[in-house]
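S1.2 Input.
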Amino acid sequence: MIRIEDVYKIGRLGKAHGVKGEVTFFFDDDIFDRVETEYLVLEVDGILVPFYMESYRFRNGTTAFVKFCDVDTQERAAELTGCDVFFPRDVALTEDESPILAFLVGFDLIDAQTGETVGTITGINDDTANVLFELSNGQLIPASDELINNIDTEKEIIIMNIPEGLLNI
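S1.3 Output.
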């Protein structure tokens, strides 16, 4: 059984495309193209289910058309419309690649100066020029490489040098 802690969201499926079972995939992260995997995890009726990819092709930088194994008709592809798409955390971590931001959702953020937990990352805000961590307490913290001391993927913590006064805003 796949648990929500073992995956992270990378996008959502749109409408069926064509009559042979392709489905439109709107993604926030193209890790499925950068890291070798045979499957994506879809949330179907509240259950996380692995779907093996037969093929995919990019439409643009945020959209692809995906053909899943055993999804061979427009009707079957349409049943997947609206499903959230997840990527396995263990596959996302490779030795030569640092974790991507969406992977860090759920990690605790620790202030390097005080050693105290600032909050848990609940989302990534990339609506502005500076990407921000959204914390469980409502705070926004810059997700800058220069501020991050260490990312411990086993303990799911990030140790950061948080600029003085930022937590008081």
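S1.4 Remarks. The chain has a mean pLDDT of 88.
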